[in-house]
Fold these 3 entries.
Entry 1:
Amino acid sequence: MELMVRRIFTIVEERHIEAGRPADPPLRKVAAVSVLENPYAGRYVDDLSELIEASRDLGRQMAMRALAAMAPYNVESYGKGGIVGSAGEQEHANALLTTTFANPFRDAIGKADAWISSMTKVAAPGTLIDIPMNCKDEVYVRSHYDGMSLVLPDAPLPDEIAIVFCLANRGRLNARVGGMSFADAQKKQAP
């Protein structure tokens, strides 16, 4: 199966100050979005394995865009999600967001073994979605529990799926609730 990409978005948010305190480095969040034609819109298909396999190339393409937008920063956290247009099912987005899709991101980032938070839903064009994010190395790094809120203008149409992958270069600004630090997670990952 070949996925038909109708539109792409790359959204970059950068925060330099919060609560009057300058950030060093600033917090950069990137969302790579692909709006696809839903090959299963309007019909039930029992076996979604073709969609899962087709997501591998989509993951590669989106990873390249997301990492280019993250430069010059390294990635410390990530998350993924999808919005399915009203002629589809929530499961269509989930099929596109499995490990098959995510592994090209992990490979491009390097040492990204932690579980990836996700959110999917069926919704009308322009609906808000909150993509949860966590540390790429260790899910228990509390400072990196964050997210990115997105509204996609005119997407997804009823026969579309919007797939989103988010990256961040650090944890929340002014994070101070304790727990494992990012540096601790890096030590844990070392060979």
Note: Helices lie at 49-70, 90-96, 99-109, 182-189.
Entry 2:
Amino acid sequence: MKTFVIFLSLCVGLLQAAPTLSPIHAIHIDGNAQDLVVHGSSLYVGTSHGKLQVYDLKTWKLTKEITLPKIKDFMGDSIFAAASSIDYRDGRYLLLSDSGNKGYTDLWIHENNVTKKILSASDKKALVKARFIDKNHLLLGYLSDEASLLDLTTKSEAYRVQLSASKFSDFALNALRTQAAFSCESGVISVIDTHTGNVIKMLKGINKDNVYKVDFKNGIVAAAGQDRRAAYYHVATGQGSYFRASFLIYATGLSPSARRVAFAMDENNNITVFDLQTHAKIARLKGQKSTLNSIVFIGEKTLVSGSDDDTVLVWNVP
């Protein structure tokens, strides 16, 4: 009888195990994926070949492409200016790229089929990430872990604040773009007011090392840690928890409600989706070939992932 009970328990466990899923679609882009953004009915992809490519979320067809001019490397050779950070707002497209000059960056705005350089190497800004706050203002993340708000009309910064003495890793905006979570090498996450630069909350105590990527939805911050901790924090309380991974965690994404979270959890670039309320594993997503750098939910049950290759994958989860 005891053996039967154990056998029955194992069967139930297997039936309840999270399914391993394959992607439902693959988008072949021009270059390696550098950044992914979902806005409205479109997916925006920044590539290593200096392109911002826009895809329709229903047909997955390319609907628009913006190409940056090539730059010169230190040998004088012509190379692609990778579009490392991209965004879209009210008819304006944002592209951040390497200038080819001492680590400084170029910042571009594309509008009405015209691409205009807003910042260049002469401005001496070592930027890593940029996002629209509104049509005329950009939130900037400096390599030095400084945050600033750039006015596109005057090209001046409303503020520039030092968040830590560590190197910047990533930032993510909440849905209203009123707050942003900044991560760095120390493992501490700074949540700031995007309009003033004031620090609202310091999230710490779970991640002990570099937090490569963050996402911020519905009062929850997800953190992908070098310490193999797939962490999440409640901004209101500063409290949180984590899932233990078997490898460095390079990417994370939250569903719009923040009920679900996805992390790159192992060295094979598989993605695990968890339910944050129950801590149950919902699914394991298998098929990514290269190191993950972006995970973005389209809805509660669909997500896209980008990695260091020319394929963006689309997944449906139960």
Note: The longest helix spans residues 2-16.
Entry 3:
Amino acid sequence: MVTPEQQESLRKIKVIITDVDGVMTDGGIILGTDGQEFKQYDVKDGLGVTMARKAGLKACIITGRKSESVTIRGEELKFDGVYQGYFNKVEAYQVMKKEFGFEDENYLHLGDDILDLPLFGIVGFSVSPADGIEQVRTEVDYVTTTPGGRGALRETVELVLEAQGKLDNIIKELTTFD
């Protein structure tokens, strides 16, 4: 359940930042014998990104790894920024902040592991998937009911849209066909 203070913080969110491995995926990485990397993404999370963008929010990825799969998924979902290879996620965040020009309180970060901890202390709202590591779950503002790779990003988007009073309109927009 979200507290009134958390609701107020969620109303200020303009940018949703997500990690990939363990958040948009279940954390598993399949490597082929030729070195090709495979990741499995949940379509519910993909629609969540679409919902966020339709509501006027920006959506970005910051990940410590570099992967062609992430590039493809980022382009497919029209993420506003895909920052790969940033072990120091605060460094990528600073680049993003210069690009978008919003205040720290306008950013939400969804992450599951220790590399996300420094960014949690800066952004306006922090979220962990249900299966994020304990050090992360105890530091964030909100823990989703769903695990990484199984709708945690979608749940986070809906949390923001609900707080901002936009969720019902976005659902109606996506499900009304003339």
Note: The first strand starts at residue 15 and ends at 18.
